[in-house]
Amino acid sequence: MSFGAEIRKDFVLDSKTIFVNHASCGALPLNVYNHRLGLVQKMESSPDVWFRLKSESMWKESIDTVAEFLGSKPSNLVFVKSTTVGINAVLRSLKLGRGDSILISSWSYFAVKDTCHELERQQGIEILYVDIPYPLKSKEQLLELYETMLQKHSSICLVLLDVITSVPPVLLPVKQLIAICRKYGKLVLVDGAHVPGHVEANLEDLGADFFTGNMYKWAYAPRDCAVLWIHEKFHGAIMPPVTGYSFYGEGEMWRNYLYQGHGDFTPFYSVGRAIDFYRGIGGREGILDYCSSLVTKAADLLVTRLRTFHYPLPEDMQTPLMRQVALPKLKKYPPVIVPPGEVKRKIHNMMTLMEDILNRFGIMCACVSVDNRAWIRLCASVYNEISDYEKLADAIATLVEEDEEIEV
Amino acid sequence: MAVFGRALMKKEFMLDSSKTFLNQGSYGNAPRRVIECRTGYIRMMEESPDDYFRWKNEDFWLSMVQTVAEFIGSDPQNVVFVQNTTTGINAVIRSLNFEKGDGILINSWTYGNVKNICAYAADTRHVDLYYVDIPFPLKSVDQILTAYEEKLSKHQNIKLAIVDYISSMPPALMPVKEMIALCRKYDTLVLIDGAHTPGQLPLHLDQLGADFYAGNLHKWAFAPRGSAVLWIRPEFHHTIFPVVTSYYDKEVVYKNFFYQGTGDNSTYYSTAEALKFYQEIGGYDKISEYCSKLALDAANLLVKKWKTSLYPMPDNMLPPFMRLIRMPDHKWFPTFKTSADDRKNFCRDNMSLMKTVWERFQIQSVFISIHGQSWCRISASVYNEIEDYEKLADAILTLLDEEK
Q: In this predicted complex, what is the ipTM?
């Protein structure tokens, strides 16, 4: 399989830009894009037939396909538009209120934090944080932090765990964390946004109560395609954020998620084609074989060129396809300084820097501010090559040079 | 000005022009140019997703809201996009602070999804649910208004009334202004289910007097499926949040609805193209002139050929572009006993008949049971002509003949 520039042509991605940020928005293969548009065509040529006669079988067929891909029983799996929707569905359905707490972490995704605080406002739920230190020394340190929080706060009803966090990009010891939560009898909701296609998924063995993950990131599905896995014992309890056509509370769970009012669900029905593409280019093994070594080389290259350092993480907590590298201090692009103990607004996008790198150098990369420093969060996908990161290094070096001219 | 009828279907729509489509009311149909416009946005999104989501998305949203707000007679600040009316209604109900014992008022003609969300609210938030049973047959608008006054005066705990502007089943133009006035009299908030109204009626939402309104652009305003508006009265701007929290801003209402992660807003961004089409083919005056007359003629034709009747309601409640016609008495068109508050059975699709009529005659129409009787709901849209309904009439007569 020819990765890099060769396979780049098979993606819809604009050829003028270098993309090293697959994690944020994914990238769509032309093959899957065309397939999806073909479904839109079918839908438009005969909508009643599509919605009344075909939808249910397309849904079921697509669920069967993605369930197999994720090691899930089809009956435990539904489509949702994104991980954020899945998380909202679970948290809004559980009847939590005053006196109950949800445990998240300072590394939780911002939309998760916002959802939690919205529920705090609406329902009086307390939101507790595991404040992850900088630097994190070991897995054991993390496990201890969770153990301590769970021991201390018996009000915790549910723990929201990441498998792979977005910023900083970290692979968490999720099975061990789940075991600790179980020890204390807590519900577990796993934010697996980055899981499908990136790390092995075997949802039936995970040991969680709920899991939600995006198919449009590392598994090449169109946007608005994600899954929510719900343990059987909660099938009657977890309702989608939109109550729609299905007679809620009656019949099979999946109908509540299919009938969300009228819309375009072709992304769900394109998931089979996406998985075919994924497997066709080598599956997880083939993809990681190329991309994992590429992202490691890329991170090392940047650290050397920029004379900075890697985000300090235990080796066994590095993700396969993402890295974070410190940026040199730039007067023009200062990081956000966060007071110690701040957990909620700890991680920021550096929008101006990202915009400048895109507009001036034609490179799309994620620049973030966390732990009082600016960083690049790198990704390597099948359409990347080492020259992409060399150009990125050149771009940053130019900014550094220009920055030296700036008087404080 | 474009010619209406099948010629327009062939020229502008993606519907298979060898077949007959009489159900604009359910799913809407967008013209090819609007779908292509949408595809353009999807392409843009996929060519450079970060750029699209971080730097372009918001400008597109604000610009589209401006255009759509003008069409619906509203200040742009009161309007957000949602996927469909169901989602908009969910947002309002889930956001409002109901306390135990507060009431929600709906009626027997309330749309199924809305009945479901209210039932869910009743169960999970201990809200009391009240129904007005709309009499069958309905002789005058006053019967509805009297029933509403009775309920509102008797149950002062009713906090919110959900009122259809044009109901779905049966399709009817409700006395919305009078119902809003009644609700005001009893200090009840009003949420208008306007699913069918953009494009079918001229809208002046800022003057309507409601607190909330949700309506689909993808039915009669030719936008792609998955584009609707939620209108929120200014004093509720900081109260109503989307059903999914992605971005949480207490100050600016649109930001919460706009920023739904890396979701596909391309349907919203195609609404300007849809409204442009709407105006190009004649705008409200010409479209209404054509479709209203066609609905009237089609209904008369079907009633005559089937020897049946229209759903019994006052003439001033007939919706502009839809009709509900009684099916002939026959086993194909089953009847059964039901009650007005039976959520599940009040209105049921007759799927096997729909399938048969589609497969054998290539006609898409809606066949349902209400009050345990069989009906057909027709829509009259710009791509329809009277021959379409002749085909429908004959199809049913053929089925009846075959059974002899």
A: 0.90
